Amino acid sequence: MSERIEDGVRIRFEQRRLGPISAPPSSALHDLAEAVEAMDAAGCCPVLEDGKSAGNGAFLADGRLFVTPSGRRPGPVDPGDLVELVRFDPEAWRAEFRSRDPSLAPTSDTPLYWAALIEAAADLPARRRPGAALHGHVMDTERAAQALDLPISRAETLFSTAPDRDALLELLRSH
Q: How far apart (Å, rounded) are the C-alpha atoms in residues 52 and 46?
Protein backbone atom coordinates (compact mmCIF):
# COMPACT_ATOMS: atom_id res chain seq x y z
CA MET A 1 0.00 0.00 0.00
CA SER A 2 1.35 3.39 -0.88
CA GLU A 3 0.67 6.38 1.34
CA ARG A 4 0.61 9.86 -0.03
CA ILE A 5 2.27 12.37 2.25
CA GLU A 6 0.72 15.80 2.20
CA ASP A 7 2.26 18.91 3.76
CA GLY A 8 0.55 20.34 6.78
CA VAL A 9 -2.16 18.31 8.46
CA ARG A 10 -0.89 15.10 10.04
CA ILE A 11 -3.97 13.95 11.96
CA ARG A 12 -7.22 13.84 10.03
CA PHE A 13 -9.54 12.50 12.73
CA GLU A 14 -11.22 14.24 15.64
CA GLN A 15 -9.50 13.70 18.97
CA ARG A 16 -10.78 13.78 22.51
CA ARG A 17 -8.36 13.46 25.42
CA LEU A 18 -10.00 11.77 28.40
CA GLY A 19 -7.25 12.63 30.87
CA PRO A 20 -4.05 10.96 32.04
CA ILE A 21 -3.23 7.27 31.71
CA SER A 22 -4.02 5.38 34.87
CA ALA A 23 -1.64 2.60 35.95
CA PRO A 24 0.09 1.90 32.63
CA PRO A 25 1.51 -1.64 32.19
CA SER A 26 5.15 -0.55 32.30
CA SER A 27 6.81 -3.64 30.80
CA ALA A 28 4.55 -3.54 27.73
CA LEU A 29 5.26 0.15 27.19
CA HIS A 30 8.99 -0.48 27.41
CA ASP A 31 8.66 -3.30 24.85
CA LEU A 32 6.86 -1.01 22.38
CA ALA A 33 9.37 1.79 22.94
CA GLU A 34 12.27 -0.63 22.30
CA ALA A 35 10.63 -2.01 19.14
CA VAL A 36 10.16 1.48 17.67
CA GLU A 37 13.74 2.41 18.61
CA ALA A 38 14.94 -0.77 16.84
CA MET A 39 13.00 0.26 13.73
CA ASP A 40 14.70 3.67 13.88
CA ALA A 41 18.12 2.04 14.24
CA ALA A 42 17.44 -0.29 11.30
CA GLY A 43 16.56 2.63 9.03
CA CYS A 44 12.85 1.78 8.83
CA CYS A 45 11.70 5.23 9.98
CA PRO A 46 13.01 7.89 7.64
CA VAL A 47 12.99 11.46 8.88
CA LEU A 48 10.43 13.61 7.09
CA GLU A 49 10.99 17.19 5.98
CA ASP A 50 9.55 18.48 9.27
CA GLY A 51 12.17 16.52 11.26
CA LYS A 52 9.67 13.98 12.53
CA SER A 53 9.89 10.22 12.17
CA ALA A 54 7.91 8.28 9.54
CA GLY A 55 7.49 5.25 11.76
CA ASN A 56 5.41 4.26 14.74
CA GLY A 57 3.88 1.35 16.60
CA ALA A 58 1.05 -0.03 18.68
CA PHE A 59 0.86 -2.67 21.41
CA LEU A 60 -2.01 -4.40 23.21
CA ALA A 61 -1.41 -4.87 26.93
CA ASP A 62 -3.96 -6.07 29.45
CA GLY A 63 -6.72 -5.45 26.89
CA ARG A 64 -5.61 -1.85 26.36
CA LEU A 65 -4.18 -0.41 23.14
CA PHE A 66 -1.13 1.86 23.35
CA VAL A 67 0.30 3.80 20.40
CA THR A 68 3.23 6.08 19.80
CA PRO A 69 2.47 9.80 19.89
CA SER A 70 1.92 11.93 16.82
CA GLY A 71 4.91 13.94 15.67
CA ARG A 72 7.47 11.61 17.22
CA ARG A 73 11.08 12.68 16.80
CA PRO A 74 13.69 10.09 15.76
CA GLY A 75 15.74 8.46 18.48
CA PRO A 76 14.94 7.24 21.97
CA VAL A 77 11.28 6.68 22.77
CA ASP A 78 10.13 7.57 26.28
CA PRO A 79 7.62 4.87 27.32
CA GLY A 80 5.81 7.57 29.32
CA ASP A 81 5.02 9.40 26.07
CA LEU A 82 3.00 6.49 24.70
CA VAL A 83 -0.71 7.17 24.36
CA GLU A 84 -3.54 4.87 25.42
CA LEU A 85 -6.13 4.62 22.68
CA VAL A 86 -9.42 4.05 24.49
CA ARG A 87 -11.71 4.03 21.46
CA PHE A 88 -11.80 4.84 17.78
CA ASP A 89 -15.15 5.45 16.12
CA PRO A 90 -14.84 4.86 12.35
CA GLU A 91 -18.28 6.37 11.71
CA ALA A 92 -17.60 9.65 13.51
CA TRP A 93 -13.87 9.42 12.61
CA ARG A 94 -12.96 10.21 16.21
CA ALA A 95 -10.38 8.89 18.68
CA GLU A 96 -10.67 8.99 22.44
CA PHE A 97 -7.39 8.64 24.29
CA ARG A 98 -5.44 9.12 27.48
CA SER A 99 -1.94 10.55 27.70
CA ARG A 100 0.51 11.63 30.37
CA ASP A 101 0.55 15.17 29.05
CA PRO A 102 -2.17 17.11 27.17
CA SER A 103 0.36 17.84 24.40
CA LEU A 104 0.66 14.11 23.57
CA ALA A 105 -1.86 12.94 20.97
CA PRO A 106 -2.06 9.55 19.24
CA THR A 107 -0.21 8.84 16.00
CA SER A 108 -1.84 9.73 12.70
CA ASP A 109 -1.95 5.97 12.03
CA THR A 110 -4.43 5.47 14.89
CA PRO A 111 -7.27 4.43 12.52
CA LEU A 112 -5.00 1.73 11.06
CA TYR A 113 -3.91 0.36 14.42
CA TRP A 114 -7.48 0.24 15.70
CA ALA A 115 -8.57 -1.52 12.50
CA ALA A 116 -5.73 -4.07 12.61
CA LEU A 117 -5.50 -4.83 16.33
CA ILE A 118 -9.12 -4.40 17.41
CA GLU A 119 -11.54 -4.68 14.44
CA ALA A 120 -9.83 -7.23 12.17
CA ALA A 121 -8.45 -9.17 15.13
CA ALA A 122 -11.99 -9.72 16.45
CA ASP A 123 -12.60 -12.02 13.45
CA LEU A 124 -9.69 -14.28 14.44
CA PRO A 125 -9.47 -17.04 17.03
CA ALA A 126 -7.97 -15.69 20.27
CA ARG A 127 -4.69 -17.59 19.79
CA ARG A 128 -4.14 -15.95 16.37
CA ARG A 129 -4.91 -12.35 17.31
CA PRO A 130 -1.94 -10.03 16.91
CA GLY A 131 -0.72 -8.17 19.98
CA ALA A 132 1.40 -5.53 18.28
CA ALA A 133 1.91 -3.76 14.99
CA LEU A 134 4.75 -1.63 13.67
CA HIS A 135 4.69 0.80 10.76
CA GLY A 136 7.85 1.78 8.95
CA HIS A 137 8.91 2.73 5.44
CA VAL A 138 11.50 0.39 3.96
CA MET A 139 9.99 -1.19 0.88
CA ASP A 140 9.51 1.00 -2.11
CA THR A 141 8.39 -1.63 -4.59
CA GLU A 142 5.80 -4.36 -4.76
CA ARG A 143 8.57 -6.78 -5.68
CA ALA A 144 10.42 -6.10 -2.39
CA ALA A 145 7.29 -6.96 -0.38
CA GLN A 146 6.64 -10.08 -2.44
CA ALA A 147 10.22 -11.27 -1.88
CA LEU A 148 9.42 -11.39 1.85
CA ASP A 149 5.96 -12.89 1.23
CA LEU A 150 4.28 -9.80 2.66
CA PRO A 151 0.80 -8.85 1.50
CA ILE A 152 0.70 -5.61 -0.43
CA SER A 153 -2.11 -3.41 -1.65
CA ARG A 154 -2.03 -1.54 -4.92
CA ALA A 155 -4.34 1.14 -3.50
CA GLU A 156 -2.74 4.54 -3.11
CA THR A 157 -4.32 6.31 -0.17
CA LEU A 158 -3.88 9.45 1.86
CA PHE A 159 -2.80 8.49 5.39
CA SER A 160 -5.12 8.97 8.36
CA THR A 161 -8.22 8.76 6.14
CA ALA A 162 -11.13 6.33 5.80
CA PRO A 163 -9.91 5.04 2.39
CA ASP A 164 -6.52 4.25 3.99
CA ARG A 165 -8.23 2.28 6.78
CA ASP A 166 -10.55 0.51 4.33
CA ALA A 167 -7.61 -0.55 2.13
CA LEU A 168 -5.81 -1.98 5.16
CA LEU A 169 -8.89 -3.91 6.32
CA GLU A 170 -9.34 -5.34 2.82
CA LEU A 171 -5.70 -6.40 2.76
CA LEU A 172 -5.85 -7.98 6.21
CA ARG A 173 -9.07 -9.87 5.49
CA SER A 174 -7.71 -11.23 2.21
CA HIS A 175 -4.60 -12.59 3.95
A: 8
Tens digit of each residue's pLDDT (9 = 90 or more) over 55-72:
999 999 888 999 999 989
* pTM across the whole model: 0.88
By CB atoms closer than 10 A (0-12, 13-18, 19+), residue 7 is exposed
Nearest to 54 by CA among 40, 34, 66, 35: 40
Give Dmax (Cα) for the chain: 44
According to DSSP, the β-strands at 156-158 and 2-4 are parallel
Nearest to 107 by CA among 131, 88, 130: 88
- Rounded Cα–Cα distance for residues 77 and 69 (Å): 10
Q: How far apart are CA 114 and CA 165, in angstroms?
A: 9
